[in-house]
Amino acid sequence: MDAALWVVPANMASFRDVDALISWVGSEQTETRGATTEVVKPALLPDLFVPSRRRASLEPLVPDPQGALAQERLLLWSIERAIHLLAGLGADTAPDHRTHVLLPGSPNRGIFGGDGAYGEAKAAFDAIATKWEHESGWPTRTTIAHPLIGWVQAPRSWVATISSFPPLRQPVFTSTRPKKSPESSLGS
Which of 18, 37, 67, 80 is most open to solvent, judged by the fewest CB atoms within 10 Å of its CB? Predict the structure, then answer.
């Protein structure tokens, strides 16, 4: 099997670009020279979709509604749209195919401050994962994995923020055991 890497420019905050990108992925691309037509890219059925993007904003609560809408379009709605469109690829030719979607979760729901709509988008990923279990249509053509990724080592630009934020100096994940009731009816 040959491998290929396709680098395709797209503005993921533009629904038109999202639509065009998914259409490009699912369509055969050909080149014609003279009387010869050659397939340069077959129609593809993605096995894995991992939406990833840089943080859209390092601002406090966005006072400009248009800015907030643009952030959510990039961080959330374009991803929802891409999932829906990917679910439709190959529905008539490969009905049993599923695209596996990895939605990276985060425990950050605004606790750092200054990260724009990031917390809202991550909370919305929780809702997408829940909808997958209860809606019809797109869930039959996708699977959803939504792990909480926890904290990762921050870029150098965050050092001042991290050193001044006490919760970041504490362990991220802790486990607790339920306290045993001294008057347990199980007699243990």
Answer: 37
